[in-house]
Amino acid sequence: MKKLILLTGILIPLSFYAQVENRATLFYTYYAPSSNNVLNSIEQSNIDFQYYLKSKVIAKKIKWDNNVAYRSVSVDDAVTKNLYDLSYTSSFVYTKKGKNFIIGYARLSVRSQYNTTLTSDALFPWFSFGYMRQSQTNKSIRWGAGINYNNDFGKNVLLPFFIFNYETQKMRFNATLPSSILLLFKENKKLYYGLNATLTSSIFDVEDNSYEKLQILNANFFAFTQIKLFNKLWFEVKPGITLRRNFNFLQNNFEPLNADSKNRLDPNFVVTSDLLYKIN
């Protein structure tokens, strides 16, 4: 039987625009059986840490948030790499008038292979800018749209994003397309549950004789349960499936090494669990 995948970490990155509550993940595990294709099986392990600085309010109209994050990634079997991702993120919400908001998000990541010479090729910027509006008739509804620039899905990619948030005392729905969808039900003050779909992509600068960059893309669908353990400490378990999982080998110009190669791995079963500290 092929090797299994086990990922452990300290934080699940959160989508800024869909974020309703600040939270830090103190312990995170990810488990799935190996996926197979022409690459055979892939084993991957992550260790993550993220720290949210206290929100700042500027001139009573701008809410400003900052955080730093670190992720260690180990990929073994058909691909053998030890990678890291160090990033700084700054975001703001500007109350333009009444229930109209301007939103912005900037992130700079350094992603590379360990023990390699650090160059500008390891820098991966991400910028988003958009508009959000709260419904005039229903304060539970917010929607928005904007444009995103990134180097995670390719070189200098421009993508539109769309936001729809709906929240009541017992239910929350957050959609930030194309990156995440969350449906959460609050059974009581100690038990939450729901569904979550995510799409993530990261490109790393590597030193290899046959390729210069490695892209790891994951699309997952989860059911989840959150249980309050004590005060602000919660435990979450998320069983689900991988809808798509790619390891793409790129040249330095972000073009695929071989356009005819098929690096998509088979969908499989996934279980994640994490210990959450809900800040507010």
Question: How do the helices and strands line up, and which of them pair or pack?
Answer:
Blueprint: E1 5-9, E2 23-32, E3 42-52, E4 56-58, E5 62-77, E6 81-97, E7 100-113, E8 123-134, E9 141-150, E10 157-167, E11 171-177, E12 180-188, E13 191-205, E14 213-230, E15 233-250, E16 264-265, E17 269-278
Antiparallel strand pairs: 1-2, 2-17, 3-5, 4-5, 5-6, 6-7, 7-8, 8-9, 9-10, 10-11, 11-12, 12-13, 13-14, 14-15, 15-16, 15-17
A few lines on this structure:
The chain has 280 residues and is mostly beta strands.
Account of the 3D structure:
The protein is 0% helix and 67% strand. It is an all-beta fold and 280 residues long. It has a 17-stranded antiparallel β-sheet that branches. A hairpin with a 7-residue loop joins β13 (191-205) and β14 (213-230). The protein starts with a strand and ends with a strand.
List descriptors.
disordered N terminus, 280 residues
